């Protein structure tokens, strides 16, 4: 049973018991109402307590039911809340740990609420592009006041119970209990029963009967609408949250509830909510690997080694230090080691100055760091991550050394971006222990981690890597071995299109503006200036030799020949002023682009923003389809996670594959055919040939996700 029923003398206790977070799924809801009926029918019971088993009261709706008929099957949450609100016996809710979404809505529908201090209270629905749908927008403002409720509902962020209890005049919590919560809830319930005994239905306080007062309602609502409009322009749910909270102040309760229901139902159909829900589930699904079940044994990781204290090595080390793991960091020369350690120290000092890290924690982290020049110091590490120069010879030397000194069972990881992981694994006598951990720069900030599964990588190594990723708070996505893995392999096609657009008539600022209006964090040229234009140049030089059939516009090479490598050289696609990262359009570069078109015999034309966005995004989608087809990514959602967490793809579009589904693959393929036809001189060499998987899905009217 997912809600337990027990009677303690004269109080019935309903305990939500549906691990992991006591989600309010169908069985739990059914059992709650059955428990209520049982308690009401038992003359010995005078009051009812609802509590949660384990670490929390409830996280809200059971996400496993999302999108299934069970989610709304009666008794749905609205019906459950109505039943408890109408109970003739007082209902007391005992809240601890976490009380979110539907859980908070249930609590608000009961008569009394006691909470443990520090309980996380939230209505997070806006994060899924929705408004709370079971009265949250109508009851919370009545319980804590318009302004605090607006903040919570529009942001979706949790607030601690004790902070809410300190709001003057609030009716959310009757008491904060810093002791035995259940015992106190039972005593409180008895007390309330004693004062209301013999009275008919309705003697118990109901949040719905309160009024929302505000001295300056019009001005506050206008302020909320303007603020939200500026901060969440691509997220319609935030504005609709404002509408619903406003309705709580202006409408009768039942009318406000109807308004909330209608708003919820219309948002369920919005592309933004569908995209956000897709991302929510895809993130959870990314940690599931078909042939590596959840109960796969894991290796213990208590100590980590990092080889190379350069840009990536330092950031990688910080991830583990932040998680409280000791790190041995190795370099070949003392000065490189000192520089690397100094950079780490400087980062932490910056955090201390900003107040986000305490002096004590800073000191703890630095003592966990052991710099060394001696491989012997890595001998007791459970996981060793290599981040040395991107040259196969250097990697070979490192992995041969590691093979000689690492303890048996140690996981040997490479942060390589482009090299063949299977080749690296073959430098050791233990390829089963070798894996790719492809961090993104800056490694201590970026959420994405591509976990690269080599052909020999053992399942327990993979399972351990996924668990380690979680521990250091990364979103891990498994990729097979190929050039560029999932993310960089796709971005190459996107960059290729960005360059073709330049020689056909666009300028960097126009392409970037179109991409940024679509929602990308940064357009392709600003991104390239940040990463370093020389990186792409090196890759292209390799492609010219290895894949001469793959064509590129030479405009980026011309830029690199001018030494314009991006922010690091103070000049790239844009001009930069000292000490400032702002990109200023460059007259020199723009003239160079126009000249390049003339020299290549291309008549420049006006290119619309729609074409820019379609060509950039469909180039990603087509390569993504190949990656899926080849099994490099296991699911379309994994590709979307790479792009949302590693490449600044707009979350409200759900990732490139989900976006293509939204547009319709039929339409994507038609657009690609149009671009293929327009490429009369074949400069784009097959870029618009739909990948077989994409063509087949489009023909069958199917989707990626
Ligand atoms: P970097 O040049 O900043 O750092 C490399 C460091 O490795 C240097 O400090 C160097 O002294 C040290 N080193 C070289 N040979 C060594 C050896 N034999 N033993 C120990 N230390 C040695 O380079 P980086 O940008 O940090 O890149 C490191 C790796 O990470 C590369 O494989 C690169 O492809 C990968 N990577 C880089 C990025 C990025 O954005 N820079 C992103 C993902 C992955």
UniProtKB/TrEMBL annotation:
Q: Where is the 3-hydroxyacyl-CoA dehydrogenase C-terminal domain?
A: 484-576, 612-701
By its UniProt entry, which InterPro entries does this protein fall under? 3-OHacyl-CoA_DH_NAD-bd, 3HC_DH_C, 6-PGluconate_DH-like_C_sf, ClpP/crotonase-like_dom_sf, Enoyl-CoA_hydra/iso, NAD(P)-bd_dom_sf
Quote the pathway field. Answer: Lipid metabolism; fatty acid beta-oxidation
List keywords of the entry alphabetically. Fatty acid metabolism, Isomerase, Lipid degradation, Lipid metabolism, Lyase, Multifunctional enzyme, NAD, Oxidoreductase, Peroxisome
Tell me the ranges covered by the 3-hydroxyacyl-CoA dehydrogenase NAD binding domain, including all copies.
303-479
**Location in the cell:** Peroxisome
Chief localization: other
Q: Which reaction does it catalyse?
A: a (3S)-3-hydroxyacyl-CoA + NAD(+) = a 3-oxoacyl-CoA + NADH + H(+)
Where along the sequence do coiled-coil regions lie?
none
PANTHER family, per this entry? 3-HYDROXYACYL-COA DEHYDROGENASE-RELATED (PTHR23309:SF51), 3-HYDROXYACYL-COA DEHYROGENASE (PTHR23309)
Protein name according to UniProt = 3-hydroxyacyl-CoA dehydrogenase NAD-binding domain-containing protein
Q: Which organism is it from?
A: Lysobacter hankyongensis
């Amino acid at each position: 049973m997912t809600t337990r029923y027990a009677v303690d003398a004269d109080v019935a206790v309903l305990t939500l018991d549906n691990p992991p977070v006591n989600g309010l799924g169908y069985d739990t809801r059914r059992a709650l109402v059955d428990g209520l009926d049982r308690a009401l029918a038992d003359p010995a019971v005078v009051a009812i307590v609802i509590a949660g088993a384990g670490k929390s009261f409830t996280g809200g709706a059971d996400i496993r039911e999302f999108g299934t008929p069970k989610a709304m099957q009666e008794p749905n949450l609205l019906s459950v809340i109505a039943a408890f609100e109408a109970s003739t016996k007082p209902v007391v809710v005992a809240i601890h740990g976490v009380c979110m979404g539907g859980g908070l809505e249930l609590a608000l529908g009961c008569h009394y609420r006691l909470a443990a201090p520090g309980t996380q209270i939230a209505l997070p629905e806006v994060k899924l592009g929705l408004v709370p749908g079971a009265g949250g927008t109508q009851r919370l403002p009545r319980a804590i006041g318009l302004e605090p409720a607006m903040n919570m509902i529009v942001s979706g962020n949790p607030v601690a119970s004790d902070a809410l209890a300190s709001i003057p005049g609030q009716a959310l919590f009757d008491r904060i209990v810093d002791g035995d919560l259940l015992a106190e809830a039972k005593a409180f319930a008895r007390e309330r029963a004693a004062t209301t005994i013999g009275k008919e239905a309705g003697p118990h306080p109901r949040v719905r009967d309160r009024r929302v007062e505000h001295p300056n309602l019009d001005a506050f609502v206008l302020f909320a609408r303007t603020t939200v409009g500026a901060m969440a322009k691509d997220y319609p749910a935030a504005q609709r949250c404002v509408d619903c909270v406003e309705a709580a102040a202006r409408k009768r309760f039942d009318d406000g509830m109807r308004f909330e229901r209608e708003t919820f139902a219309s948002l369920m159909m919005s592309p933004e909510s569908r995209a956000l829900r897709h991302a929510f589930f895809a993130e959870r699904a990314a940690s599931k690997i078909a042939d590596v079940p959840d109960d796969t044994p894991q290796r213990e990781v208590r100590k980590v080694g990092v080889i190379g204290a350069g840009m990536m090595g330092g950031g990688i080390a910080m991830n583990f230090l932040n998680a409280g793991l000791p790190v041995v960091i190795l370099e070949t020369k003392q000065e490189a080691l000192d520089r690397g350690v100094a950079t780490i120290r400087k980062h932490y000092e910056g955090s201390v100055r900003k107040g986000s890290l305490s002096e004590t924690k800073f000191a703890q982290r630095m003592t966990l760091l052991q710099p060394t020049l001696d491989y012997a110091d890595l001998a007791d590490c459970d996981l060793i991550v290599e981040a040395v120069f991107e040259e196969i010879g250097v990697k070979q030397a490192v992995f041969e050394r590691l093979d000689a000194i690492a303890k048996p069972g140690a996981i040997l990881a490479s942060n390589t971006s482009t090299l063949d992981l299977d080749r690296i694994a073959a430098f050791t006598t233990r390829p089963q222990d070798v894996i790719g951990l492809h961090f993104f720069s800056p490694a201590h900030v970026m959420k994405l981690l591509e976990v690269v599964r080599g052909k020999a990588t053992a399942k327990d190594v993979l399972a351990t890597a996924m668990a380690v990723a979680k521990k250091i708070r990364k979103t891990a996505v498994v990729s097979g071995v190929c050039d560029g893995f999932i993310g960089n392999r796709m971005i190459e096609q996107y960059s290729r299109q960005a360059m073709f657009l330049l020689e056909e008539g666009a300028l960097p600022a126009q392409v970037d503006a179109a991409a940024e209006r679509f929602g990308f964090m940064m357009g392709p040229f600003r991104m390239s200036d940040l990463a370093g234009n020389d990186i792409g140049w090196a890759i292209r030089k390799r492609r010219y030799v290895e894949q001469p059939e793959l064509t590129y516009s030479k405009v980026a090479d011309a830029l690199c020949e001018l030494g314009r490598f991006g922010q690091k050289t103070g000049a790239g696609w844009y001009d930069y002023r000292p000490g400032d990262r702002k990109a200023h359009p460059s007259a020199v570069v723009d003239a160079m682009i126009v000249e390049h078109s003339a020299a290549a015999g291309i008549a420049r034309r006006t290119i619309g923003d729609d074409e820019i966005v379609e060509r950039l995004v469909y180039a990603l989608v087509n390569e993504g389809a190949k990656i899926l087809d080849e099994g490099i990514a296991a699911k379309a959602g994994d590709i979307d996670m790479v792009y949302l967490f590693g490449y600044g793809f707009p979350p409200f579009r759900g990732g490139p594959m989900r976006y293509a589904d939204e547009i319709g693959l039929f339409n994507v393929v038609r657009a690609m055919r149009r671009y293929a036809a327009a490429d009369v001189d074949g400069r784009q060499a097959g870029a618009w040939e739909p990948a077989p998987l994409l063509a087949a899905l489009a023909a069958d009217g199917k989707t990626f996700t």
